[in-house]
From TrEMBL, chains B, D:
PANTHER family xref list: ABC TRANSPORTER PERMEASE PROTEIN MJ0413-RELATED, ALKANE SULFONATE ABC TRANSPORTER-RELATED, MEMBRANE SUBUNIT
Domain ABC transmembrane type-1: 56-234
Taxonomy of the source species: Bacteria, Pseudomonadati, Pseudomonadota, Alphaproteobacteria, Hyphomicrobiales
GO terms for cellular component: plasma membrane
Record organism: Blastochloris sulfoviridis
Keywords assigned by UniProt, alphabetized: Cell membrane, Membrane, Transmembrane, Transmembrane helix, Transport
Protein name: ABC transporter permease subunit
TM region positions: 64-84, 96-115, 121-142, 163-187, 218-237
Automatic annotation (TrEMBL), chains C, E:
Keyword Cell division: no
Annotated organism of origin: Blastochloris sulfoviridis
GO molecular function: ATP binding; ATP hydrolysis activity
Protein name stated in the entry: ATP-binding cassette domain-containing protein
Gene3D superfamilies associated with the record: P-loop containing nucleotide triphosphate hydrolases
Domain ABC transporter: 2-223
Length: 309, 248, 238, 248, 238
């Protein structure tokens, strides 16, 4: 990428859009701790609800810094929007939660009824990819039905309407806690991250990251610099100050502090340079491309997509 | 105005809409609004590839099934409520509540009763259609001409004749537009319920297209649903509209 | 037999009837005269059971009652034939049979074949009246309640239909309660003429009569009738 | 039936609904359907804590603003379309399309034009309300009595008098139920748009409650929205209903 | 001046008028007689510009035209006073002034104060007619088109209103085109009597007349009139 000479003008009125995903707390901490105050004074933060919301923010130029599942910026880049991936902040947060004591491994899922969410979207694709690798045909060997959101799947589990569901965080933690209050025993039977590791090397899935619009990098190299220096300490603070982090999440992301805090162990936050784990990211992208090329807009993103942290 | 002129003007209106769309596309770019031509091309591919048929069948079943059930229930309750004032007064706020409760509240119930796949989209449609048709039928009954009712009583007309010869023709004046509105809602709500629900039908395909951030594909599916709605309106309601007031 | 016994009725602005009595026997045509707004239409509605008296009793022991309203009251979406056949439909007569019967009646009332299929909005005022009259007579009623039925008809049609009514009374023994403003019409048709006062309606003149078709006799009788102080007071003076 | 009796019967209807809810709760348990009493208690807490007020103000602005704008536009177009048959024929399919297109198709547009918080929920409401009111106004114009129109022409009545003394009173017969239906939809759609949108208003609170898997809280917010809808219906439409046909 | 010049009109089932001519001058009351369905109402609608002729010309050069329809055509949601004031509202008269004027007229027509606020459904047939007549005369028209306006009125009211019409013709010089079925009414009122044939309507009798209020003279003239072969053929025979 061509970078213009550094300008002395800070970016004003930046709206940071966070993915509705617990790992976003890293970027929130960075903002709240004043890490971006110099480069982007008055930056505001808001969760986006769906990709339409995100797309409108990006196209209008209101938002140029986001956290997001990493297939989204790749897809947008392939559609001609110059998006760049700076860092991975979540190494996966999917698990199979069940009340069925007979389920311990993927193989045990055969013949069971399972509730999934976001059909054909990333969580579903990850599950299907792993299932294939485990020798299970998700369309034939298991009875997979879908609901609209993880909240509904969690609700069904808690209410006893379903025995097994694929869940993300924090709904998985929330479901287990709520069921516990009524004496129903739910547990995380399978970590999809572990399962992934058996087939793709490391037991982690680079799922969510921080991405920017190229124009933001051009306008304010200082902001990029601030992100580079601030993200890792923000993560460290979150892991070290769990209670405060949960309060922060409650204030800015409307999470429930108790659930958030417990869920911290399971959503695998980390801060890793995109360029540094490009091979792992591409493994993930290829797995998705195999199953559903349209998810990424057909191809791998170009070289300039990956930024160094 | 005859049927041909009406059709021509209707086509002109739709053409105007297409022009507005094209203008929007030029002004805002493909990431916000893909070109109508591109969308139409995508739709053609969809149809030719055979993907459209099954999705369409599922959505049509959801929309029309829910519409039919909701319309029959709504019309029956509306007529009964119109003829029996206390019943009508009791039902009116209930239907407003049913109408005003956002679908998220129903989703829980629907999931529970019908499971994630099955009938929950149809149920959501029913719940939307029922109050609309109720209101139309209710108003149709209330607005009928008392002078004609007296005439029928003076001739000792049995209830069935009154219904057929007096009530229904006057009712249709209010019921038909309600049915048309409800039909349009039925398609929209069926699609939305599928988008938010188990991922079947046109709505499921839209959800997938959205997950792919593929706007042209999303709009192609929407276009298909709307085309079907217009076809349905023409096929189901126009004949009734033409026959309205033609009853003996 | 139709009997009003001490009927009282009030729409909220003073009584229309206050202990009003009336009786109509089979084979009799009773004409009701009275100023506009005195309660003639209301008495027919009471007889037909369309309003209930506040107190008193209305008893209609006739088997089959039909009514010709002051306005035509036709179904706007049905054609002339179906409208004329409505009473027959109420009796359960099949569609073909009732349309045939109604069509015959209307043709007898001067309808051209093309007019039979017209809807009320395409009919002239007098044609609408005739449909309403056909609707009533199609059911061969024992009691006919008629509210100024011939007001919109030309002299020729009026005479024909007056004859039809007399015929029903004399040959079938029907009873008729006949509201009219036309004294000559009352004299021509009625076995008994009642003149009502202004509200609350009271019978101020109750005259037995002999129906006649002779114009000279009718005019003479009308002049005599209107010379009676009670009739004069109720019908002409303010 | 007088107003008091109507009110009593309406309350009875709502009580019936509450009983059905309680029965559902007993049959299904609190995890599927919380008790009405628990929900009401949650709602009371919400109101007393002062959280309800601001959310409610946002949603009310979205719902009523969108309803007002959509109703005015829809009524104007419906009346114009009813009076000018070619315009009506051209607008009818366009409004069906507008009605039948699921919001996903224009949510991007709305977000782009109006921003995530601002007016996009109101715009979604407008787009839903417009076709409903259009249909009502259109039908109201078409169903008017031609005999009265002739009378007015014979007396050379100016357009404004015709509108006031003839058209509006006949129109209300169809327009009022359409406005009532549209109002109910306005609340529902505003809440839904907020759930899917920027997280403000009652819808935003519902989204949060759902994320917390807190059903009682979700239903408490829904109840608040519905209560407001009923209050609105009583406050805005009942007076018009009473005055209808009372115009000189 | 109102002029029909070679007017042709067809509703799709044969011509109602075929090159029909007619002229009404100021200060003249022209009565139209003819059998039911012959085209009398249609001729008034042509005069009022409510239908256009298929060919030929209708010219109405009067400044202010008012019409009394065959049916009352009242606004169901407005009370008697507002209905009678409708024509004044069309002229832009303020609400208070027009209601006062309409109320006076109706009171003159025999309305009790309580009746002024009634809606049409609460009025008797004759009361509705009177409201329609008041609506027309309230605007003090130069040309009044009247379609059997007094058919629903009792003898007394009819005479009063007949006098009102003659008064308008004689004192204000209004022109009146007056449709009636009642030959005595035509003789009582008209300066000229036209009898129309069955469809297509043609003038089969065109008689100058002298209005009179003397009952004996009216009855004699009516008998003479109906003895004319043209009138007899058009009005009485089939
Ligand atoms: N809109 C219409 N469509 C078709 N035919 C019509 C229409 N209006 C009137 N006609 C026909 O035109 C003829 C004349 O009708 P018109 O109302 O002028 O009669 P009229 O002389 O006023 O009769 P009446 O004394 O019964 O009121 C009738 O045969 C009628 O059926
Ligand atoms: N529904 C009603 N509400 C209030 N008043 C009514 C109602 N129906 C009739 N009236 C009043 O009752 C009286 C009698 O009315 P009715 O129609 O019986 O008169 P009528 O004798 O038939 O008069 P006309 O010769 O004018 O037809 C009138 O003063 C009328 O205003
Ligand atoms: Mg009467
Ligand atoms: Mg006529």
């Amino acid at each position: 990428a061509v970078t213009r000479p550094a300008s002395a003008h800070p970016v004003s009125g930046l709206e940071v859009l966070g993915a509705p995903n617990a790992s976003t707390v890293v970027l929130v901490r960075l903002i709240e701790s004043g890490g971006l105050a110099e480069a982007a004074p008055g930056a505001t933060f808001r969760l986006w609800r769906d990709t339409d919301d995100l797309r409108a923010g990006l196209v209008s130029g209101r938002s140029r810094l986001i956290t997001t599942p990493i297939h989204v910026p790749a897809n947008l880049a392939n559609r001609g929007l110059p998006m760049r991936l700076l860092a991975i902040i979540s190494m996966g947060h999917l698990s199979v939660v069940t009340a069925d004591p007979s389920i311990a491994t993927f193989a045990d899922l055969a013949g069971k009824k399972i509730v999934g969410f976001f059909k054909n979207d990333m969580p579903d694709l990850v599950f299907r990819t792993i299932a294939r690798k485990e020798g299970i045909d998700p369309d034939r060997d298991i009875e997979l039905t879908y609901v609209g959101t993880p909240m509904e799947a969690a609700q069904m589990l808690v209410a006893g309407q379903a025995e097994t569901a694929i869940l993300n965080e924090p709904p998985a933690t929330g479901a287990i806690m709520m069921a516990g209050q009524t004496g129903r025993a739910l547990r995380r039977a399978i970590s999809l991250q572990q399962a992934w590791g058996r087939h793709f090397g490391k037991p982690r899935i680079p799922m969510a990251g921080v991405a920017l619009h190229q124009s933001l990098i051009d306008d304010s190299p200082e902001l990029l610099a601030a992100l580079r220096t601030g993200l890792a300490p923000a993560k460290d603070w979150v892991l070290a100050n769990r209670t405060e982090a949960a309060q922060l999440a409650e204030r800015t992301m409307q999470s429930r502090p108790a659930v958030f805090e417990r869920s911290l162990d399971h959503f695998n936050i980390d801060v890793v340079s995109a360029a540094a784990i490009r091979p792992e990211i591409e493994t993930f992208y290829r797995a998705i491309l195999d199953l559903s090329p349209a998810t990424l807009g057909g191809t791998l993103p170009p070289d300039e997509f990956y930024l160094d942290l | 105005m005859n049927a041909a002129a009406r059709l021509a003007w209707g086509a002109a209106g739709l053409a105007g809409l297409a022009v507005a769309w094209e203008a929007g596309h030029r002004a805002l770019g493909p990431l916000v609004l893909p070109a109508p031509a591109e969308t139409a091309a995508t739709l053609t591919t969809l149809i030719l590839s055979g993907k459209a048929g099954p999705a369409l069948a599922v959505t049509a079943a959801d929309a029309l099934g829910g519409w039919l059930a909701g319309a029959m229930l709504g019309a029956a309750l509306g007529i009964a409520g119109g003829l029996l004032p206390p019943l009508g007064a009791a039902l009116r706020p209930v239907t407003i509540v049913i109408l005003g409760v956002p679908p998220i509240a129903w989703v829980v119930l629907a999931l529970l009763w019908f499971g994630p796949a099955g009938l929950s989209a149809g149920f959501t449609v029913l719940v939307t259609v029922l109050p609309i048709v109720f209101a139309g039928a209710f108003q149709g009954i209330l607005a009928r001409d008392p002078a004609l009712g007296e005439m029928a009583r003076a001739f000792g007309a049995p209830p069935l004749l009154k219904l057929r010869a007096l009530i229904v023709p006057q009712l249709l004046d209010h019921l038909l537009p309600a049915l048309a509105t409800a039909l349009a809602f039925a398609w929209k709500v069926a699609v939305m319920a599928e988008v938010l629900g188990g991922g079947t039908g046109i709505g499921g395909e839209i959800a997938t297209a959205r997950a792919h951030l593929d706007l042209a594909m999303t709009l192609a599916w929407v276009m298909l649903a709307v085309a079907l709605l217009l076809a349905c309106d023409a096929a189901l309601l126009s004949p009734v509209r033409r026959r309205a007031r033609g009853v003996a | 037999m139709l009997v009003f016994d001490g009927v009282t009725l009030d729409f909220g602005d003073g009584p229309v009837f206050d202990r009003f009595d009336l009786a109509v026997a089979p084979g009799r045509l009773v004409a009701l005269l009275g100023r506009s707004g005195c309660g003639k239409t209301t008495s027919l509605r009471l007889a037909a059971g369309l309003v209930a008296p506040a107190s008193g009793r209305v008893e209609n022991r006739f088997r089959r009652t039909a009514m010709v309203f002051q306005e035509p009251r036709l179904l706007p979406w049905a054609d002339a034939t179906d409208n004329a056949a409505f009473g027959l439909a109420a009796l359960g007569v099949g569609r073909e049979a009732r349309r045939a019967r109604a069509g015959d009646l209307l043709t007898g009332f001067g309808f051209a074949p093309a007019d039979l299929g017209k809807r009320p909005a395409e009919l002239s005022g007098g044609m609408q009246s005739r449909v309403a009259i056909a609707r009533a007579f199609a059911v061969e009623p024992d009691l006919v309640l008629m509210d100024e039925p011939f007001a919109a008809l030309d002299v020729g049609l009026r005479r024909e239909l007056q004859d039809l009514v007399r015929d029903a009374v004399e040959r079938r023994g029907s009873a008729v309660l006949f509201v009219t403003h036309d004294v000559t019409e009352a004299i021509r048709l009625a076995d008994r003429i009642l003149v009502l006062s202004a509200r609350p309606a009271r019978v101020v003149l109750d005259a037995e009569a002999t129906p006649t078709a002779d114009p000279a006799a009718i005019h003479a009788a009308a002049a005599t009738f209107l010379a009676l102080p009670a009739a004069r007071g109720a019908l002409l003076e303010r």
